[in-house]
Amino acid sequence: MSEATVSRAPFQSQQANESAVSDQESPLRHHQYVRPAAAAGRPRSHLTVADVCDELGISKSTFYDWRAAHKAPCCIRLPNGSLRVRRADLERWLSECEEPA
Q1: Which of the listed ranges 4-8, 30-34, 36-40, 68-72 does the model predict with the highest average pLDDT?
Q2: In terms of pTM, does the model score above 0.85?
Q3: Beta partners for residue 47, in sequence order
Q4: Where are stretches of biased composition, namely Polar residues (predicted)?
Q5: CATH assignment of 2-97?
């Protein structure tokens, strides 16, 4: 048991030192990512379902209900299975939803 404790101690201290150095070198951690469009202040051209729901003020379940009823904006399915909505498609869909006064 003492051998395992001895062999782990240097690794743990080395790992702590590496994380301290990497935090000092970069303000972002390795798992954080700033989208280029968001960083430049431009609206993104492809929105997540969460982005669309936030913009419309609806829940994700409502969005998926609309999608099942073919009443949601056109979506793109990515290879990982997640959905994206083109901003242009969302704007077009919103204009089609407008009712004359």
Answers
A1: 68-72
A2: no
A3: 85
A4: 10-25
A5: 1.10.1660
Give the separation between CA 57 and CA 6, rounded to whole angstroms.
Answer: 55
What letter does residue 44 receive in the DSSP assignment?
P
Alpha-carbon distance 26 to 28, whole Å? 5
Q: What share of the chain is helix, strand, coil (3-state, %, to 5)?
A: 55, 10, 35
Distance (Å, rounded) from C-alpha 89 to C-alpha 95?
10
Residue 42 has pLDDT above 50, yes or no: yes
Segments making up each domain of the chain, as ranges: 2-97
Better-scored residue on pLDDT, 82 or 30: 82
Alpha-carbon gap, residue 40 to 63, rounded angstroms: 28
Locus of tokens 């909505």: 85
H/E segment holding residue 29: none
**Please, which residues bridge with residue 46 across strands?**
86
